[in-house]
Specification:
Elements lengths: L1 H25 L17 H13 L6 H14 L3 E5 L2 H10 L16 E5 L4 H9 L3 E5 L13 H4 L4 E7 L8 H11 L2 E5 L7 E2 L2 E2 L6 E5 L12 E5 L2 H11 L47 H32 L6 E2 L7 E2 L4 E6 L7 H10 L5 E2 L17 E2 L4 H9 E5 L6 H16 L2
Parallel strand pairs: 2-3, 2-4, 3-14, 4-5, 5-8
Antiparallel strand pairs: 1-9, 6-7, 6-11, 8-9, 10-12, 12-15, 13-15
Length: about 425
């Protein structure tokens, strides 16, 4: 029977994982094996579901995607989850949805301004530029690395129509202040939660405050599909708009393989098309094809069951690092959580205070030479990046702290794959460095 053969294949997959991958994932020798800043944490469940999906040979979104969208929306506390092929695509779709003419006077138009920060990841900002909108850069705080909310009013103008910012490295920005600002001026709020899945603010999951939010499932993030991302919304119209831009810009909202969901496939009239033109081939937006495969979603279904444990591990590892590095606060600014928040930390950011003993580059080089991965806080000051030198933008003030981050900040990992042994090795390496300065 086909099901018996499938079960036999899946049992062999479990056996393969135990023989080939399990040991490799947990091997660690100090000074020889790298301590990553992030990485995949998985077991045979992910492999079994991946192969199970491949045996269906349903290569676009299917049963696993439907299951994941339903369960992830429930986990995050939103009405809808729409899967896409990356977190970067999620950001593009979330913002682009608000350019739809179906929103009437509320749609974003070229030349409108979107408040954001320059100390972030490029694909939080790229959609603003790609849609002909103007980014307005606000400085951030050292320690939380989130937007300076007291400068929001300075950033506002009559052209301001939206705010799009990330919860930096999992640390929620001041949602009370940002929500009050966006409500006062009737602005869209898009929360980039790509580094913040599982973080809460005032007891509520981030990603549930704004008009739309985004997540990423790249291997470095809180859970993975290899590639992949999602847009989260609570509004039926926003859901339809995101889906349209994701699926070629079509007006039809049938799922893959479905027909005539609206019940009027051959009876409507659009633009100057003939009456009754097939609704599956009516396009209401200049869209993309940014869908996901069911094999990716299958991995996500397995990962989602582990996500609560992943979140707790990140919090625990962050606390171990914080407690271990407190002794060096004469030289290092250690991160701290925003008031009212409980972060699911993506990384452990460190800012080197200006001193005459060592530079950020020196401590980073020391860590890297001892096989401890470090990363910059993404683009540093994105206005200084080559790709952004000629873009049109506004900024509030001098972005002094953003430049400080560019010059003096890096981060190390707290992801669930970092065992106590690995964390202790990292802390001892810091101690060795400071002993030698």
């Amino acid at each position: 029977m086909p099901q018996d053969l499938r079960n036999e294949i899946l049992e062999k997959v479990k056996e393969f994982y135990k023989q080939e991958l399990d040991t490799k994932q947990h091997t660690f020798e100090e000074g020889k094996n790298v301590v990553p800043f992030a990485g995949r944490v998985y077991d045979e469940d992910e492999l079994v579901k991946l192969v199970d999906a491949s045996l269906d040979f349903w290569l676009t979104a299917g049963r696993y995607a439907e299951e994941f969208e339903r369960d992830f929306a429930k986990y995050m506390g939103t009405k809808f989850c729409l899967l896409t092929n990356s977190g970067s695509s999620a950001n593009l779709l979330a913002l682009t949805a608000f350019t739809s003419p179906k929103l009437g006077e509320k749609c974003l138009k070229p030349g409108d301004e979107v408040i954001t920060v320059a100390a972030g990841f490029p694909t939080t900002i790229n959609p603003i530029i790609q849609n002909g909108l103007i980014p307005v850069f606000v400085d951030v705080e050292i320690g939380t690395y989130n937007i300076k909310v007291d400068e929001l009013e300075k950033a506002y103008s009559e052209k301001t129509k939206a705010v799009m910012i990330a919860h930096t490295l999992g640390n929620p920005f001041d949602l009370d202040a940002v929500m009050a600002f966006t409500k006062k001026h009737d602005l869209y709020l898009i929360e980039d939660c790509c580094d913040a899945v599982g973080s809460t603010y005032d007891g509520k999951m981030v990603g549930t405050f704004g008009h739309a939010s985004t997540t990423s499932f790249y291997p470095a993030h809180h859970m993975t599909m290899g590639e992949g991302g999602a847009i989260l919304v609570n509004n039926n119209l926003y859901k339809t708009l995101v889906q349209s831009f994701r699926d070629w810009g079509r007006d039809c909202f049938c799922e893959p393989g479905a027909n005539d969901t609206c019940g009027r496939r051959f009876t409507m009239q659009f633009g100057s098309l003939p009456q009754g033109y097939d609704h599956k081939y009516v396009y209401s937006h200049i869209g993309y094809n940014l869908k996901i495969t069911d094999m990716q979603a299958a991995v996500g279904v397995a990962q989602l069951k582990k996500l609560p444990g992943f979140v707790e591990s990140r919090k625990k590892n962050f606390n171990i690092m914080h407690n271990g590095l407190k002794q060096f606060e004469e030289y290092l600014v250690l991160p701290y959580a925003t008031k009212k928040s409980d972060p699911s930390w993506f990384g452990f950011p460190i800012t080197v205070k200006v001193n005459d003993k060592f530079t950020k580059n020196q401590i980073v080089e020391y860590l890297e030479n001892h096989k401890i991965m470090t990363r910059q806080l993404f683009a540093g000051n994105i206005t200084r990046q080559p790709a952004f030198k000629d873009i049109k933008y506004r900024q509030v003030g001098t972005l002094e702290n953003t430049d400080m981050i560019m010059n003096n900040t890096f981060f190390i990992g707290v992801y669930p794959g970092l065992t106590e042994r690995k964390l202790n090795y990292v802390l001892r390496t810091f101690e060795d460095f400071f002993r030698g300065i």
